[in-house]
Amino acid sequence: MLLTITTTHRPADDLGYLLFKHPGRVQSFTESMGTAHVFYPQVGADSCTAALLLEVDPIRLVRRGKVRDADGFALGSYVNDRPYAAGSMLALTLKSVFGTAMTGRCAARPELAATAIPLQIHLPALRCLGGADLLGRLLEPLGWQIEATAVDLDPVAPEWGRSPYLDARLTGELRLADALRQLYVLLPVLDDAKHYWVSDDEVDKLIRAGEGWLAGHPEKDLITRRYLAHQGTLTRTALARLAEVDEATPAEFDDAEPAPEQPERPVRLAELRRGAVLAAIRATGARTVGDFGCGEGALVRDLLADGSLERIVAVDVSTRSLQIAAQRLHLDRMSEYQRARLEIFQSALTYRDDRLSGLDAAVLMEVIEHVDPPRLAALERCVFGFAAPGAVIVTTPNAEHNVRFESLAAGTMRHRDHRFEWTRAQFRAWADRVGDQFGYHARCVAVGPDVPQVGPPTQLAIFTRSAA
Fold it and tell me: Sign (positive/negative) of CA torsion 254, 259, 260, 262?
């Protein structure tokens, strides 16, 4: 499948800076579904065209379980339109190959990255369930002018009718980052299909990519529903979040027919915890952050999404956890810019490691309770003494809150690998002692509902360096 981007903004060959791809080279990238190539068919001061060609390997897709049999056709997994029709595979490749351009940052041409420039995007084989009418309804409100030609099922036999494919040209004046983010969302929406399983994190992807344009779009309901594969719970969650952005009330997105009020999905403790940690990091003003005990990379993903962070160090003692983190973070197809920001490696926090030094902030999220108490002093020396970041953020379970977990037997801990779980007083005493010993001021805060008598489910301490 092919996509081209053309600009006539002078000097047009500055498009290479915005895309972070040199106009003088053909570059290839290995993707989960095949190989992507970026090249420039036309380079000049008056006009410049960048092309993204995705060669899909259908056998690789089948082996990875990405394509199912079509309508019971025995070879449907191998013989289908996925290698040729622009859809979710092309959208995912856009994010992988042009991920840095999608952020809107360009150190070499910062003014250009922030400027709306004339763009023409050509999609020779765009699968659009809804035809040119739907294409116009989705893209014209965003400032695009549309030229779309329906493709016959068979040019030799026009009586067979039209196919669901369009030869589409989009012309407009937008920031390149905005155009790429819109395509990332709308390609799978027009196709009304995704080649991968849609889970909770797709809501976050939609909100991030739709920032600045989706909340006010007249077709946001349709866009959200199709992007989230018609999953009702995810769609309602996304529309409610978009309503907050649009200063509307979530009730506007209820079903047209009266229905019993649906209880809100409670925010999971893991989400609350990550949110509290991210807020604490932002409060410190850190630009370089370490996730010490990163596990399978849930927090690392959120850190990478924060454009203010210049360097992220992710470490864990478990090589298996690091392998899973690498898969979930898609290290193999991460953009050059994102990969340059991230260092991920194995390390034990109870042994000195100079690679952990020099950071503005470090996070130990649900880590200390996995350390044997006799080894805790070694972790304190290595993190607070040797690595000595400007700030340290620590979270751990509050043992007093355990009585509120109905599935937890009395006297047991929340995880079989926990070596201890502290009360609020024990955590406060530990934080004060470590702060005094290594020159930090410790402040403890609650994460989650702070219930009378038993406190919050998670307790968090923010250590900041004391004044000299």
Answer: negative
pLDDT category at 244 given cuts 50, 70, 90 is: low
| 3.40.50.150, 3.40.980.10, 1.10.287.1700, 2.115.10.20: CATH of 269-465 | 3.40.50.150
For the chain, the structural domain boundaries read 2-196, 198-255, 269-465
d(CA 399, CA 346): 30
* SS3 readout for the chain: CEEEEEECCCCHHHHHHHHCCCCCCCEEEEECCEEEEEEEEECCCCCEEEEEEEEECHHHHHHCCCCCCCCCCCCCCCCCCCCCCECHHHHHHHHHHCHHHHHCCCCCCHHHHCCCEEEEEEEEEEECCCHHHHHHHHHHHHCCEEEEEEEECCCCCHHHCEEEEEEEEEEEEECHHHHHHHHHHHHHHHHCCCCCCCCCHHHHHHHHHCCCCCCCCCCHHHHHHHHCCCCHHHHHHHHHHHHHHCCCCHHHHCCCCCCCCCCCCCCCHHHHHHHHHHHHHHHHCCCEEEEECCCCCHHHHHHHHCCCCCEEEEEECCHHHHHHHHHHCCHHHCCHHHHHHEEEEECCCCCCCHHHCCCCEEEEECCHHHCCHHHHHHHHHHHHHHHCCCEEEEEEEEHHHHHHCCCCCCCCCCCCCCCCCECHHHHHHHHHHHHHHHCEEEEEEEECCCECCCECCEEEEEEEECCC
pTM above 0.70, yes or no: no
CA distance 133 to 146: 10
For 30-59, the pLDDT digits (tens) are 887 788 999 999 999 999 999 999 888 766
Structure-token pair, residue 158: 């026009």
How far is CA 42 from each of CA 7, 8, 39, 45, rounded to the nearest angstrom? 10, 11, 9, 10
> Residue 145 half-sphere exposure, CB side, CA atoms within 13 Å?
6
Higher pLDDT, 271 or 40: 40
Other residues' Cβ atoms within 10 Å of the Cβ of residue 114: 12
2-196: CATH topology: c-terminal autoproteolytic domain of nucleoporin nup98 (3.30.1610)
The answer to whether the 2-196 and 269-465 domains have the same CATH topology is: no
